[in-house]
Amino acid sequence: MTDTFAGKYTLDFFNEFMYIVKLEYPAFNSNKFMSLIYDNHWKKEQFKQRIRHISTSLRKTLPMSYSDALSILTRIAPKCIGVEYLFFPDFVEVNGLGDWDDSIHALEIFTQFSSSEFAVRSFILKDPEKMMDQMLKWSIHPNHHIRRLASEGCRPRLPWAPVLKAFKLNPSPILPILKQLKQDTSVYVQKSVANNLNDISKDHPDLVKNLAHDWYGENAITDWIIKHGCRGLLRKGDSEVLFLLGFDISPDVSVTELSLEEERVKIGQTLIFSFSVQTNSSESQKLRIEYAIDFVKANGTTSRKLFKVTERIFEKEERRYIRSHHFKDLTTRKHYPGKHKLAVIINGKELAAIQFYISNTVEFLQEK
Known about the structure:
Elements: H1 3-6, H2 11-24, H3 30-37, H4 47-59, H5 66-76, H6 87-95, H7 100-110, H8 120-126, H9 128-138, H10 144-152, H11 165-169, H12 175-181, H13 187-201, H14 205-215, H15 220-229, H16 231-235, H17 239-244, E1 253-260, E2 264-266, E3 270-279, E4 285-296, E5 302-314, E6 318-326, E7 338-346, E8 349-359, H18 361-367
Parallel strand pairs: 2-8
Antiparallel strand pairs: 1-3, 3-6, 4-5, 4-7, 7-8
């Protein structure tokens, strides 16, 4: 998480939040709260650090009793909606591990307005069996935010959160929850189940492939979850997954005329490229066409990321594709100068590649 999210905590945000708190708790000391927030560390902190900073400051300005403080937060939660309010469940994570019942109830409320996906992990670590029983109960809750928490909170590799090492080694406690949710009608929940499966596939590919074989074909919802959950295996060209999803394992296809508009691009600019796909078989073929970029990392090594171009049934034909890729720094990716590689991938196989160079501002100006 970067300053894009950290910047959400403006003075206007805190003024509005303090107004909401004081309506429920008139004794709230706004001056003390703001002095605690804007200390010597605040400007240097990123989003998750600021979440913890705010929850710690609240602990010093709300009633000393945890249950009383929690009661205030649960009452104002419906007025505090969005990712900015992740400090509500963080307050529970920091202060509530010893008060299980009140804390679990609060996390259930808070996740409906922000998300408790990070906070529940400390409860899983404290008592895995008890917490996973609770999350299985959440998986049948009428509210889709709470059902989604049941899956999202136990992802072994949840982004921006410490991994659950025990579930990386043995994901079996997660499976009853995923089984319960594999036909959920909420897209929000479906995406979480798929992401959980994709996490598991990185350490236990055979387990996920077995689930895919067992579940695929039940209905359209489960089929979508399986396909999205197997996307990592699909991108690796796993033959079992390709076959299960109806893709040709050895497609009769070629890629030609891969070219770049510019061989040198500045960070923040757009790379435009094109290529042609020729299907040679007289029989129809189901193809998944992607392009991959091997991004240079800070240490000089590269990391590949794939981007979908199209996925459909091809007859014998030739088709030209023109695509663009923007090298703007994102919350999830920072770009570094150096030699990059672009490749065209069809059904998991690299069929063409070309190199290009990414420059930083200083290099770009020197070249000019």
